[in-house]
Write a structure and sequence with these properties.
This protein has 254 residues and is of the alpha/beta class. The protein contains nine helices and seven strands, in the order E-H-E-H-E-H-E-H-E-H-E-H-H-E-H-H. A seven-stranded parallel β-sheet has the order 3-2-1-4-5-6-7, sandwiched between helices. Helix 1 packs parallel to helix 2 and helix 3 packs across helix 4. The structure holds NADP nicotinamide-adenine-dinucleotide phosphate. NADP nicotinamide-adenine-dinucleotide phosphate binds next to helix 1, strand 5 and helix 6.
């Protein structure tokens, strides 16, 4: 299952799994792009693809998915969907806070609980939680998004430890700037310092699957790994937070 699969990195994950011959359940709000992707994957890779239109910001989204599956087993879960609001924290309405935390944190938490349990019982399975470089330190003007991404990373890493002898692999896959519709539509400006190459969406699942089962989290893209190494291991926390905030401010002319 790929949750948040209608475009971008989620669609790339779906293509990558279909290329391995896996049947898929793909989830997003917009049915039409899901159906287009399903037709293309079924034709290219001779797999079965089911489409579920669902808003993952609904409080009972995980339960709705389970009901819609009607007993169908999920052996691989990619939780990719995310919502971010760029700008000062105080400009978030209470509704924004609920939506962002539900899509980025609460729904994946419940999905991991539900599907992780049956994977551990069977002794096989894999889970990928998409996270972000923004979640590796405080990220001004991305505060709520960054905090939810830190949550996903810590959740995946914790379960990697708990499940490492269970036959279930789980990884937090951390992306930096990646040329998806979501990223392009946010209209980022190019900034000079600490802006590694923008990745193609397909590169993220390729790198993630190379690391799945070997480590609790990974960072897609060599430039992102270098930037992250410098920010996490060389700089002081204060400097890393300042650089991240300054970069975001310049990128979005805040
Ligand atoms: N792109 C980047 O530069 C970048 C950088 C760092 C981390 N990431 C992470 O990588 C992941 C994917 O990013 P992306 O740029 O590919 O995102 P995107 O282009 O915004 O696509 C997100 C996908 O999730 C679905 N989705 C969003 N909200 C949803 C909701 N409420 N209910 C159901 N589906 C929903 C969207 O489909 P519908 O609109 O049809 O619902 C879409 O298929 C995210 O977790 C993001 O945090 C991306």
């Amino acid at each position: 299952m790929v949750a948040g699969a209608s475009e971008g990195i989620g669609a790339a994950f779906a293509s990558s799994l279909a290329a391995e011959g896996l049947d898929l359940v793909i989830v997003a709000r917009r049915l039409h792009p899901l159906q287009q992707l399903a037709v293309s994957l079924e034709r290219t890779y001779k797999v079965n693809v089911k489409c579920f239109s669902l808003d993952l910001s609904l409080p009972d989204a995980a339960l709705e998915i389970e009901k819609a599956l009607n007993g169908l087993e999920i052996n691989v879960l990619i939780y990719n969907a995310a919502l971010s609001r760029i700008g000062p924290f105080l400009e978030n309405t209470p509704e924004d806070l609920s939506h962002i935390t539900q899509v980025n944190m609460i729904t994946p938490l419940h999905m991991v609980r539900r599907f992780g349990e049956s994977m551990v019982r069977k002794g096989k399975g894999a889970i990928v939680l998409m996270t972000s470089l923004a979640g590796l330190q405080g990220s001004g003007n991305l505060s709520v998004y960054a905090a939810t991404k830190a949550f996903s990373r810590i959740l995946a890493e914790s379960l990697w430890y708990e499940w490492k002898n269970s036959g279930v692999d789980i990884i937090a896959c951390c992306a930096g700037a990646t040329a998806t519709p979501g990223y392009v539509n946010s209209q980022p400006e190019k900034t000079g310092f600490f802006t590694p190459r923008v990745l193609h969406a397909e590169e993220v699942p390729q790198e993630c699957f190379r690391k799945l089962g070997k480590q609790p989290s990974c960072i897609a893209g060599r430039g992102n790994r270098i930037a992250s190494f410098i920010m996490q291991k060389v700089m002081s926390r204060k400097m890393a937070v300042t650089i991240m905030g300054d970069t975001t401010r310049k990128m979005y002319k805040l």
